[in-house]
Amino acid sequence: MIELEHVTKMYGSIPGIRDVSLHVPQGQTVGLLGRNGAGKTTALNLMTGYFPPTEGKVRIGGKDMMANPRECKRMIGYLPERPPLYDEMTVEEYLSFVSELREVTRKANKEHVNEIIELCTLKDVRKRVISHLSKGYRQRVGIAQALCGSPDVLILDEPTVGLDPRQTVEMRELIRKLGKDHTVVFSSHILSEVQQLCSRVIILNAGQLVQSIDLTEKPTDTLKLRVRAAGRKEALLGALQGLPCVLRAETAASPEAGTAEFLLTCRTADEQGRATDQIFRLLAGLNAPIRMMTEEKDTLEEIFLRNT
Fold it and tell me: I want to staple 194 with a disulfide (CB 3.0 to 4.6 A). Which of 31, 55, 140, 261 is the partner?
């Protein structure tokens, strides 16, 4: 649905993003992560056609953004970090105005606006002037204007920034609901938010794409374990390496005197049973009491920090 092919954007001699290629399939919700200045907003602005790439191609629905800007922009709803609201209008007037700009016919305009107001839970404030709305409602109106014209793609730049905890939860629920019928790309600094809402995460650093992570991947048939047991390191290491389920064994520093700590890469199970059971039986037989056995998993925070 959205494709960037070797895209570079220069601001004079300063690169915003450099040689970024990515593909967002239809129906996917993708989170864009990166430190301040990593190129997230530049990438979003290129996707929306807000400005052209210096090099490379941007395609929406298979169409080139530069060759077919009108057709591409019809498919996109955009919420910038600061929602483009007219404070003197009521919510209803504003959404009706935006729908006209998005070429919704006058006959269909009223019903279209009513559907958006219902979806974004704006019924209680539809007659209120936008300047009188709270931050949370203003963000909702910002997403509502992005839905005008029934776009296939929603691009949201920091949609929960500045919201209180309750408003943040409500905004997440709205994005989750929209993700069922739209392709959604949004940037955020809140890793837990991205993990809850997204099927994929793209990490940018210094203007370059450094990692794309599929959060829907099924668990592999291997696992990593951190094991600490009482006993001599050399003897225990040799015994652990001899287990059929252990693919790799490394020593690690142990904080407890008289114990040894290991990082093990194991098959989850084989003909002799689960890896954790095999390790337990081995160490029990060696009279090496287990002080700790935990599964090692990279959190999104660890992956982000490592890449940035």
Answer: 31
Structure pTM? 0.74
Cα dihedral sign for 119, 120, 121, 126? negative
CB atoms within 10 A of CB 222: 13
Judged against a pLDDT cut of 70, whether residue 186 lies above it is answered with yes
Two structure tokens written together for 165: 């905890």
- Give the position of tokens 């494709």: 3
Cα–Cα distance measured from residue 262 to residue 82, given in angstroms and rounded to the nearest whole number: 50
Closest to 95 measured CA to CA, from 112, 82, 79 = 112
Contact of 155 with 185, CB cutoff 8 Å: yes
Question: What percent of the chain clears pLDDT 90, i.e. is strictly above it?
Answer: 62
Name residue 182's amino acid.
H
Amino acid of residue 199: S
The SS3 call for residue 17 is strand
List Cα–Cα distances, 203 to 56, 137, 155, 194, 207, in angstroms.
20, 29, 16, 11, 10
Strands 259-267 and 246-252: antiparallel
| 174-182: average pLDDT | 88
Q: Angle at the Cα of 71 (from 86 to 194), degrees rounded to 5?
A: 65
Please give the structure tokens belonging to residue 173.
Answer: 């629920």
Rounded to 5°, angle at Cα 185 from 114 and 113: 10
